[in-house]
Amino acid sequence: MVAPFAKAFGTTVTFLEKKDKARKLAKSLGADSVYEKLPELIPEHSFDHCVDFVGLQRTLEI
Questions:
Q1: Could you tell me the residue ranges of all domains in the chain?
Q2: Which residues touch 52 (CB under 8 Å, ≥6 apart)?
Q3: Between the N and C ends of the chain, which has fewer C-beta atoms within 10 Å?
Q4: What is the C-alpha to C-alpha distance for residues 23 and 29, in angstroms, rounded to an integer?
Q5: pTM
Q6: Are 23 and 36 in contact (CB under 8 A)?
């Protein structure tokens, strides 16, 4: 998983994941925030980079 690698560079890691098991795994590997869907209160342009490991168009529409 990418979280430990990204954390090694001092980044803040946020995961969006529908599966509960995968959210728990991401948190256990060091993700700072883990969501099932992006909260409404997060302002636009809050993230510098987005990495999609699934390749679905709807992921890019978040």
A1: 3-60
A2: 59, 60
A3: C
A4: 10
A5: 0.71
A6: yes
For the chain, give the number of residues.
62
CATH fold label, 3-60: Rossmann fold (3.40.50)
CB 1 within 8 A of CB 25: yes
Q: Please say if the pLDDT value at position 46 is more than 80.
A: yes
The tokens describing 2, both together, are 């990418």
Residue 40 — pLDDT band, cuts 50, 70, 90? confident
Q: How far is CA 60 from CA 29, 50, 51, 56, in A?
A: 24, 9, 9, 7
Determine the Cα–Cα distance for residues 25 and 17; give it in Å rounded to an integer.
10
- Are 17 and 34 in contact by the 8 Å Cβ rule? The answer is yes
